[in-house]
Amino acid sequence: MDITTKFSDRVKHLEASAIREIFKLLAKPGIISFAGGAPDPELFPKKEFAELAKEILETQGNTALQYGITEGYAPLREWVKDRLVNQGVLTKEDDVIIGSGGQQGIDLATKSLINPGDGVICEEPSFIGGLNCFRSYNAQLYGVPVLDDGIDTEKLEELLKSHSNIKVLYTISTFQNPSGITISLEKRKKILELAEKYDILIYEDNPYGELRFSGEEVPTLKALDKNSRVIYFGSFSKILAPGMRLGFVSAPAPLLERMIICKQTEDVHTNVLSQMIAYEFVTRNSIDEHIAKLRAAYGKKCRLMMDCMDKYFPAAVKHTCPEGGLFLYCTMPEGYDSKELMKKALERNVAFVPGTSCMIDDKATYSTFRMNYSTASEEDIETGIKTLGEVLHQFMEA
Amino acid sequence: MDITTKFSDRVKHLEASAIREIFKLLAKPGIISFAGGAPDPELFPKKEFAELAKEILETQGNTALQYGITEGYAPLREWVKDRLVNQGVLTKEDDVIIGSGGQQGIDLATKSLINPGDGVICEEPSFIGGLNCFRSYNAQLYGVPVLDDGIDTEKLEELLKSHSNIKVLYTISTFQNPSGITISLEKRKKILELAEKYDILIYEDNPYGELRFSGEEVPTLKALDKNSRVIYFGSFSKILAPGMRLGFVSAPAPLLERMIICKQTEDVHTNVLSQMIAYEFVTRNSIDEHIAKLRAAYGKKCRLMMDCMDKYFPAAVKHTCPEGGLFLYCTMPEGYDSKELMKKALERNVAFVPGTSCMIDDKATYSTFRMNYSTASEEDIETGIKTLGEVLHQFMEA
User: What is the number of other CB atoms lying within 10 angstroms of the CB of residue B47?
Assistant: First the structure.
């Protein structure tokens, strides 16, 4: 029997992400990868987690291993809510649920909101996991360029004016993946004004917001939102560890209720032991001290990568200058194809993500590429950027 | 802004499960609950897990806490496949992926296969998590009664003959939730014949199959399947611990590939630490010895519950006699409403799941109810069934 004849319209058109295909090549020994989006494993609190896991399983094993609550482990949920209230992101009236990673929040919201053909505006470039999620519910995707101070609000309004099917704007507002860019306060206000005027919702995906290593804090869109238009997604992946799959969402109560029903049919609830480890860690240790360590480490690595780029890359290759997060974004002059560059780089054992993986039209040619600075060691950053510089010089002179 | 105006067609009609509402009442102190579907927490291997968790985080913490592979932790995936091959469920050519509980497999398959309006045939009664999953993708549900030897194959063929939109039959083939009934070998062959004749797929959901405490093994539908019509779902929830959220799926390769793309957008991958704990546990200990303990314990509790029912329940109330699993199913004479019975039982601090929660038309009245025997202690089974017997006598004489 040919199973492909049975596929739903949702998945017929879906393709395995190009990043995944690249990742398969990364198993190659000796490769220096700037392709991932992973935190530095040397900064995981492994020792603390090992002690906590043992203690929790010994003293609260019946809770840690039994079915849990779909909304999330209550103490962790409360802790997340309190923290977001203290940060000014939420008010006391807002509610939060725990999801299996930030990604699940985006999926549950999209399942609950998007009919086939509904429009979702995405930043270009954007996060492939977001784009593929919207694609998997047959959303119509529209792109708006990311400028140095964030999404191009003029283009945004043009799109909203000319398309009545748009329901959601998806933005990674702070230290964007892949660009590293943060939306300015002025633009945040403008975005909220447009959301009101054109009656759309905003997904504010903020997994990197805690990782600022320079510049000034900017309030989240959610903090500025007066009319419950922002659905806010956060994550423990970048501040604790991604393998735990812990994230959270805040949304208007009736939407959260639908999302909970969808979560019941998706995975019933999130892994309980990891929720308990996270809760015990953040209450017994200073999470702010832990985050301060991450900020310092990633700030140092980012600075190093930028310095190496300025030293070894052709002057015509531009890069963004992030104030936090895990990524910066490079642009070659018009006409150079970063997918071709990637092939050359892989021959020299260096990997990155070509811009095509971050774009709505992933068949077109782009001169951009994403570079991650959090995972590689400082030594590998030096060596890798130097090699990539050589590859770039050859590639652009060829 | 009224968020409800933005809901997708998928979730507009969804309702929080009635079981959940019952569960809220279970917080009442002193209640004896036969309503859950949870394993006995006293049988969780807590001590072993505590040691393993500590060791894994100390020695393989970078793997346990970093992003993992969407398909699942490779050693666990191999182990599951080997076990299923050894059990005769799969052939060496079949493939398996790990999901966040058995539920996620059902969700990913349904997302990949079911268009709005496609037909899914379910056993009546059936598992609410399955029914709600199909509802959340706007499937058209059709019910076929469960008889003493499993699904009514005549009714099944009538349905298949008269409806061209049917794509999937959903069956919990062994120790069914909620009935406890196992489909006979003869009927399994008939079901596969009908699937072939009417070109439909079969979801075989088998979370309880390992928990046989009496009678003879029956081959799974998957083992009998000659033409890749069966998508097979398994789970670690009942043989290890549900809080870990670990399940697995076997499906034809092109479908698995779509499901993996959907899993990437749903939760990226399954919690890594729990996959590693499960793998180390099953390879260092005898999982068969562990399962033998569970079988003995649940067999004893099931026997006790049936004995108490025969002693204390009115003779007119019938119950199924399961050979394994976690549930048995009771039927009062026609006309009595088990939702009304539940109110009376809750007044006396005893809880169960009324049949309405297991049916496609969950607004109708049913004289049936589901009883779980795995969670309560033996003492509570005695006390609870005696009390429920009193409630039943009063209810049926009123």
Answer: 11
Of the candidates A42, A111, A261, which has its C-beta nearest B8's C-beta?
A111
| Angstroms from A177 CA to nearest CA on chain B | 16
Pair B354, B347: CB distance under 8 Å: no
CA distance B66 to chain A (A): 5
The domain A3-44+289-397 is placed in CATH, from the list 3.40.190.170, 2.40.50.140, 3.90.1150.10, 3.20.20.60, at 3.90.1150.10
ipTM of the complex model: 0.97
Quick: pLDDT tens for A246-297: 999 999 999 999 999 999 999 999 999 999 999 999 999 999 999 999 999 9
Distance CA(B105)–CA(B248), nearest Å, equals 7
Q: Where in chain A is the domain with CATH 3.90.1150.10?
A: 3-44+289-397
* Cross-chain residue pair B65–A257, CB shorter than 8 Å: no
- Contact partners, residue A69, CB within 8 Å, separation at least 6: A269
Cα–Cα distance measured from residue B148 to residue B142, given in angstroms and rounded to the nearest whole number: 20
Query: Cβ–Cβ of A229/B17 closer than 8 Å?
Result: no
| A274/B271 Cβ within 8 A | yes
B221-269 confidence digits (pLDDT tens): 999 999 999 999 999 999 999 999 999 999 999 999 999 999 999 999 9
Exposed/middle/buried for A216, CB within 10 Å: 0-12, 13-18, 19+? exposed
CB-CB neighbors (< 8 A) of B133 in chain A: 265-266
pLDDT tens-digit readout, B290-346: 999 999 999 999 999 999 999 999 999 999 999 999 999 999 999 999 999 999 999
Q: Give me the percent of chain A exceeding a pLDDT of 90.
A: 94
With contacts defined as CB-CB under 8 Å, which chain B residues touch A46?
57-58, 61-62, 65
Interface test with A, best of B1, B8, B165 (most A CBs within 10 A): B8
